[in-house]
Task: inverse folding
């Protein structure tokens, strides 16, 4: 297990977000990204979670709603990594995975693309 402060992990998440192409980040709408230490449901293997309405499912009714929420979990990520390089890679995969859900891409397609 890799040891890393919350601040350092938040920086990793920020760096992963910075690597998302501008063309995609411009399309993201009403979404916020958070870092939490552990999932609240007790699933110690969950690296990230997307909660919201994907862009592909929004219609005329979509107005005045709270932002979609992407949460990246520090504890599970660090437990599966032995090096900082592994944490960087795993964090980037998780960030891309959860953003893809915002765009309506399902887990099956993400696994096929290597973001499972």
Result:
């Amino acid at each position: 297990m890799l040891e890393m402060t919350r601040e350092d992990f938040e920086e990793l998440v920020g760096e992963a977000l910075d690597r998302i192409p501008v063309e995609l980040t411009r399309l993201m709408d009403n979404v916020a990204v958070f870092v939490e230490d552990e999932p609240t449901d007790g699933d110690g293997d969950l690296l990230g979670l997307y909660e919201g309405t994907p862009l592909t499912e929004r219609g005329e009714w979509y107005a005045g709603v709270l932002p979609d929420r992407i949460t990246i979990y520090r504890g599970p990520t660090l437990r599966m990594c032995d090096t900082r390089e592994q944490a960087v890679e795993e964090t980037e995969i998780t960030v891309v995975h959860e953003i893809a859900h915002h765009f309506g891409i399902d887990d099956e397609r993400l696994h096929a693309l290597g973001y499972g």
